[in-house]
């Protein structure tokens, strides 16, 4: 595939993952999130919940030099960089300088905080801190042409985006010019079958309670469910390439994204349930026409008395083949099954481990992007 302005290349990632009793992602009442699909109630884990887990994996395992921070506390974050660059400036003065600079860039602050979450890369924050030092007089001087200063400061906030900002996007209602379109999409994970919530009644015993006090110090209930989930995400690689501008960086970032998608887990109530599972099946494809979410495989819920994993995997692979009637043939498909003996529809290359899958993916993106 030649590199041209109208070139399109999409990465699809599908996974089947079983999760034991857990409450990964709660609603406002503390109940596990659910969804109605195919006429039945499904377990659901929101895309935001799993994207947060993926970003956390980036920070912990990715060794990324230019990672992003999404926070209201950007003022103090940049101020620390200023003090590190110029120790003659006090932290208090640095905070005041950053507040004025951010306001000049049309980012509203109050009480040393931004009024809304803002996603900023480490490189952007570092360069913004340096600009605060270089343009200190202009920033503090009320007579300065703020329009020209605004352009210069916003230019810093638009360049050097991190891979997580490029993948997940940045939205600022106050000034859409600072928005960054996301090159990836992450679906809400839902169970392949119907679920029913259950309740755990528990109590906590006071270790130092008097011997004549047999009562519990605390009584409560916790709602949970168990499920086999279908998970899906995609990346518009042509857009991602435009955002980062470096093929090697794109390939490394995509490998990290797939690894994080497979290995990450949202941490909701994880200490209570230890639901530390991994997918039993992973399918990765490259397509030239459009991405495809294969949740339609489970519109009719899986029914079983001896487990949902194998039937869910078989339905996923069968659905994959069906879409050959509509979509172009994928440029690349690799899959990984924990159980090599499972009989599935032939859709691509079966890999022995995740490293082999990522190596194959790297080679294919390098040729086709």
How would you describe the overall organization of this protein?
With 369 residues, the protein is an alpha+beta fold. Helix content is 37%, strand content 22%. It is built from twelve helices and 14 strands. The chain has helices at 47-61, 74-85, 91-104, 122-134, 136-140, 146-158, 163-168, 237-244, 247-263, 270-273, 309-322, 354-368, and strands at residues 10-22, 34-37, 40-45, 68-71, 109-110, 113-114, 118-121, 184-186, 189-191, 198-204, 218-236, 281-287, 332-337, 349-350. The strands form three sheets. Strands 1, 2, 3, 8, 9, 10, 11, 12, 13 and 14 form a ten-stranded mixed sheet that branches. α2 (74-85) packs across α4 (122-134). The longest helix is centred in the C-terminal third of the chain and has 17 residues, at 247-263. It is globular, with a radius of gyration of 24 Å. The N and C termini lie close together (7 Å). The mean pLDDT is 93.
Number of helices: 12
Distance between the termini: 7 Å
Secondary structure category? alpha+beta
The run of helices and strands is: EEEHEHHEEEHHHHEEEEHHHEHEEH
Computed CA radius of gyration, to the nearest angstrom: 24 Å
Q: How would you describe the shape?
A: globular
Q: What does the oligomeric state look like here?
A: single chain
Strand content: 15-25%
Provide mean pLDDT, rounded.
93
Number of strands: 14
* Low-pLDDT segments: none
For the largest beta-sheet, the strand count, sense and barrel status come to: 10 strands, mixed
Instruction: Work out the helicity level.
Output: 25-40%
